[in-house]
Amino acid sequence: MRKTVPFVFLLVATVYSPLQAAPAKENGEEFIHVSPDGRGFTLGGQLWYPMGCNYFDPHVGWAPKMWREFDADKVEEHFRVMRSLGVNVVRVFVAAQSFFPNPPKLEPEALKKFDTLLDIARRHGIRVHPTGPDHWEGQPPWAQGDIYADSKALEAQVAFWKAFALRYRNEPNLFAYDLKNEPHVRWNGPEMKAGWHVWLRERYGTVEALRKAWGNEAPDILSFDAAAIPEDKAASKSVALFDFQHFRESLADRWVKLQVEAIRSADRNHLVTVGLIQWSVPVILGKPSRYAAFRPSRIAPLLDFLSIHFYPLHGDPLASEEDFNRNLAYLEFVLRYVRAGGVHKPLLVGEFGWYGGGNTNDRRAVRSPEDQARWCRTAVLQGRGIASGWLNWAYADTPSARDITKFSGLVTEDGKPKRWGEAFQELARAPAFWTGPENKPPAEVEFDVDRAITNPKEGDAMLRLYFEAWKPAKGCGVRVR
Predict the structure, then answer these.
(1) How many angstroms separate the CA atoms of 424 and 417, rounded?
(2) What rounded mean pLDDT belongs to the chain?
């Protein structure tokens, strides 16, 4: 196996102090920029802290049909409520079927609705963070294949972002473009198999070199086209699996690069990111295919800032104090890992909530609003000095949802603030409370990421080690040296 330099994590007890700069005013007439130190955002030359939520009307079905059933009066009221809670950013999903059913042209009717939402947001001092194109309102033909490995699907996505960015390049009330919600490279399929063979040919040059590198994993391979996709099971010493994970990462790199270039060809005013699923961090994977293949350190140079989603999936955080703390350590580990991948890039938590996905019959779904407020508030405070902003999932409780969305809102389905909404309001009004510098680390441990993406037990062992180091102070940290 090719020798790689492992990530080096430094465990620290973190000391926080408030930033001195005043928060920026919300005037909606200037673009958001990355701060000079690369740690946060600025608006009008002052520090600006994204504190908001993911938005869709809670009464338009599940999955939400926000654009099909767009009601400007209801949206106006929702934004009024959000602004009263201190929301300054909303992340919205740009549906592929509604906005881009027939490339390369955007759908005029959907654009009118998006323009209306922008106008409403501007009136309430809220920035819009469009994510797309997503599947919620149906998938047009171009989006039904492998969007990471299929060339036609890639061309369509590039065309979408070029057209969308060209239309909104001079719109300052857009916060940033989010390329897609939780991208995850597939494990198999005809496009993956064909791309795998091309990648191997470029990597090794000759079949003899491949056989030599793979050893007893490739005794009978006579051509690159005969190389099978590895089995989806842990194998720390498998060179084939190691190669395949790096092939998947190369597809993620290319996917990000092409879309960022498309946006930049039309728009130099707005920031660009992608909302990573937390399985971009190789812990609690279970099997190699669950790794999303979007490695922060590889894609960070292409993006203006990093964005990660996090839900407490390390057991039930509300079952015991031990599990509550275990998930806080897990959160901090994820944030520091992603932050380390983009040392001079801000980090936004683009989604978070009080437990993970799954159906709403889960026993955790019936916990109290006080439990939600306790977890979410504590999570934000645990990210001090690491995350530069937080977007709750979601604006309101959504009665027809079949997952956590049913109970995850800042407000009830009829717009009444919940305990978490009230706590969110306090945090939004005092951003210095959840930001601050980090202390110098006194100790270190190593995390070999390449081993973790081929054998998930390696990542789990690292997380256990981190938790044990974290427990005494409840505030250890992670940096990449």
Answers:
(1) 10
(2) 89
Domains for the chain: give ranges and CATH numbers.
Answer: 7-187+267-470 (3.20.20.80)
Biggest CA pair distance of the chain:
67
pLDDT at 274 over 60: yes
The distance of Cα 324 from the centroid of its chain, to the nearest Å, equals 22
Q: What is the pLDDT of residue 23?
A: 46
End-to-end CA gap in the chain: 23
pLDDT tens for 112-169 read: 999 999 999 999 999 999 998 999 999 999 999 999 999 999 999 999 999 999 999 9
Any idea which residue has 């992340």 for tokens?
Answer: 91
b/e sequence 289-314, b meaning 16+ C-beta within 10 Å: bbbbbbbbbbbbebbbbbbbbbbbbb
pLDDT confidence band for 236 (50 / 70 / 90)? confident
Which tokens go with 340? 């380390």
Q: How far lies 48's CA from each of 33, 70, 183, in Å? A: 9, 30, 27
- pLDDT score for 447: 79
Nearest by Cα to 99 from 137, 50, 150, 59 = 137
Burial class of residue 3 in the structure, from the number of CB atoms within 10 Å of its CB (0-12 exposed, 13-18 middle, 19+ buried): exposed
**Contact present, 238 and 458 (Cβ < 8 Å):** no
Identity (one letter) of the amino acid at 195? Answer: G
Predicted local distance difference test score (pLDDT) of residue 317? 85
Tell whether the model's pLDDT for residue 22 goes beyond 90: no
Residue for token digits 């309102």? 137
Nearest to 183 by CA among 233, 245, 134: 134
Can you tell me which residue has the tokens 């520091």? Answer: 336
Q: In terms of DSSP bridges, do strands 7-11 and 443-447 run parallel, antiparallel, or are they unpaired?
A: antiparallel
Q: Contact, 55 vs 395, CB < 8 A?
A: yes
435 — pLDDT class (breaks 50, 70, 90) = confident
- Joined together, the tokens standing for residue 67 give 């654009």
Secondary structure (DSSP) of 382-446: HTTTT-SEEEES-SB--TT-SSGGGT--SB-TTS-B-HHHHHHHHHHH-GGGG--PPPPP-EEEE
- Span 224-244, average pLDDT: 94
